[in-house]
Amino acid sequence: MAVVRDKVTRLFVMAAIAEAISWAGLLAGMVVKYGPPGNELGVQVFGPIHGVLFVAYGVLVLAVARVHRWSLLATFVALACAVPPFATVVFERWARRRGMLDVTEPAPEPAPVG
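RESULT FIELD:
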């Protein structure tokens, strides 16, 4: 189970960072779209990318919450952090500091002698 927990946790961290980066790209695309150039290319490129990463982050929050046994409140806050820009990274750092993303391996059983 520790292997699954470790893999899901790593995917969650990558999704949190990637979702924040896609927010930056989408915000830059919106500045270009509504600014003087009036070019929609940035939004057309980063919109779908951000959408996929938004959904992936949500699914991974639910998976990590299950394997780490997060409270309902912590799970809700993690999901809500997908909405404001860059909040996924803030939540991930906060959760790591509180030990909510720790992967602890069970102590190995001692081998019988003889």
